[in-house]
Amino acid sequence: MPAFASLRADGLGKSYGQITVLSDVTLDIHAGEVHAIIGENGAGKSTLMKLLSGHASPTAGHIAMDGRAVSFANAVEAEKHGIVLVHQEILLAPDLTVAQNLFLGREIRRGFMVDDRAMDRRAAELLARIGSAARPRDRVSDLPLAQRQLVQIARALLDERKVVIFDEPTAVLANDEVAALLDIVRGLREHGVAVLYISHRLDEVQELADRVTVLRDGRMIGTWPAAELTQRQMAELMVGRELDMLYPHKRPATTHEPLLSVSGLEVDHGAQKASFDVRPGEVLGLGGMIGSGRTELIEGLMGLRPSQAASVVVNGSEIAHRSVGSMMEAGLVYLTEDRKGKGLLLDEKLAPNLTLQALEIVNPGTVLGRGAEMAALRKAVADYDIRVRSLTLEAGKLSGGNQQKLLLAKVMMTDPSVVIIDEPTRGIDIGNKSQIYEFIDAMVRSGRACIVISSEMQELVGLADRILVMRAGRIVAELLGEEINEENVVYAATSGTGQHTGGTA
User: Fold this and answer.
1) Whole-model pTM over 0.70
2) Which partner for 50 in 56, 157, 238, 294 could form a disulfide, CB atoms 3.0-4.6 Å apart?
């Protein structure tokens, strides 16, 4: 270890008026180590990162770098000291190319002219190093979300850094992209860079981190060598109590008639000849690797993608012309995996986000009454434990877990019989995960059916009463009872065959 820590927070705190969001945090971040910061949403992780990277100023305590006190008026000053924050939110110029974004404000010039060729060459090298498929001249707005995140990471690593702070960097990445990013983090550590790493994925924390600091309710609980903590112990430190069973008890198999029956569904550039059903009181899991066609299958079913089917029956009635509206009227709703881009209107307030799909239910009259809308919001906040400082907040100001609960409350406003949830807990802390699982369990115990798509194998195995596994656009296996385990899901997803192929799969 060096004589001085690369970065030190000493009694750091942050208050907004009378509200204290971070209090008395003291920790060292050493050169050549990965230091993970974990905690539930609202624990103070992002506030701490903003203070250390110049995006906010502390109201208590101070920061030292290499043994000398420093203060940052803004993020630019922090970057001059070698500290950079890779944000969870995408902060790129969408209408510019990848290379233009990487070099924005620090363009390579030849004389008075911007040297586009030199920037393209340097961008291509860096993109290849971090495993991005983006090309220097791609327009950022044309890239999928995961590639935008990798471009943002590339921008942060363009110059030499002493401290790199990652805030949920893998939340939108596929498995191969995650592996490439973890290799980048290891490479930074090997080159003597201090890495601060925030993630809800405790398996990543356990794999990467040298030390782990836990925050809870704006306070520091402690710092431990990562090798001394199991993932379960990390989770218990985050929530401040021993975890009971994270997943609800499985329900007995149901013999009722299906609420949804799909036969021969073909989705353009997606699923092929898919047939399946789901019954009341059942959680049906949809597993498979990224790119297997799971989301495409559901989007085709909902009319969001061009598709054809021999038949789709909801609540005993065949649906001839499928659209989001017609499926919702029949009793089927879909929570998209992209809650920020497609699920919620982030710049709108909570009430219109909640009631947009159910205006006639909230208020059957011709004009939506403000009182009825706010009454619906108050009930949703109570029923789904949506934690807000004010009912007049914009949806974009909620934490990820509370956004997901708002989205769940929104689709439940229509009283559906079948609920499809794509990646129900992506980017959500352990406490909110447990709540989402409880909501799903209550949903199916009330006689509804739920279809869950999840890339987290433990989640899929823990929630589902039955799992359909997809590979290359086809349902290749159906797992029941004791067959439901991670090994069987992975085997079916990668080899194309499972232990059980009965039923309608």
Assistant:
1) no
2) 56
